[in-house]
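Reading a protein record of the kind used here takes only a little practice. These numbers are not coordinates but entries in a learned vocabulary of local backbone shapes. Here is one such record, which you should read through line by line.
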Amino acid sequence: MEEHIQIFDTTLRDGEQTPGVNFTFDERLKIAKQLEKWGVDVLEAGFPASSTGSFKSVEAIAKTLTTTAVCGLARCKKSDIDAVYEATKNAAHPAVHVFIATSPIHLKYKLKMSQAEVLASIKEHVSYCKARFDIVQFSPEDATRTELPFLLKCVQTAVDAGASIINIPDTVGYSYPSEYGNIFKYLINHVQTTQDVIYSAHCHDDLGMAVANSLAAIEGGARRIEGTVNGIGERAGNASLEEVALALYVRKDHYGLESQINLKETKKTSDLISRY
């Protein structure tokens, strides 16, 4: 298919952080199979380093899916990256999603690191990922509360180290559409590379703008949208992928690009998540 908006589903990772939600091993496998049938490009199957259960679930999903890429989440820690590698090594299309926080509040209170230390960590750990994976996605956590000049340095460092997908997370649902879309325009215009880089949007719904922000990101040049079925997720939830897919279909006159989601499988997919 010609260029399309890629759909990155994190129902089994970010979605499972919904209060009171805890999918069983069998439920996770059934959900993964249905998401592949629905047509998602990438499935973030879990955070393998977080628990034995998560590792085994990601491993089983990686062995089962045949067309959808299977991705695991990792902090900028070599042990996390190794866990993703081991869990996804038998996938048809394995991928890693590595992240580190970049906003002033996260640097000061969570990481207790300087900007220079964060940049060094990005270079070290994205390079470590690239030695093990063809596809490396990097996220500067809390990107929307990060000063643009430093955000650019973080993204440039990740691209130079081998990241081919850059995700810009609105981690606490802080941004609004014009601001969020402009972040993508700024990075696309300023990052220096001869490689193809895909920019991805990851929005939370704390202010009710996750889908609007995601669509604004597409207008700003993003070609991948991250979210969950039914918009589930921690706090107010994530961008609702079925709403994004339908918006692209209904308003293709404006966006000019669609997803590969099979809209006829949407209700079945939504009902499955609701039931579990």
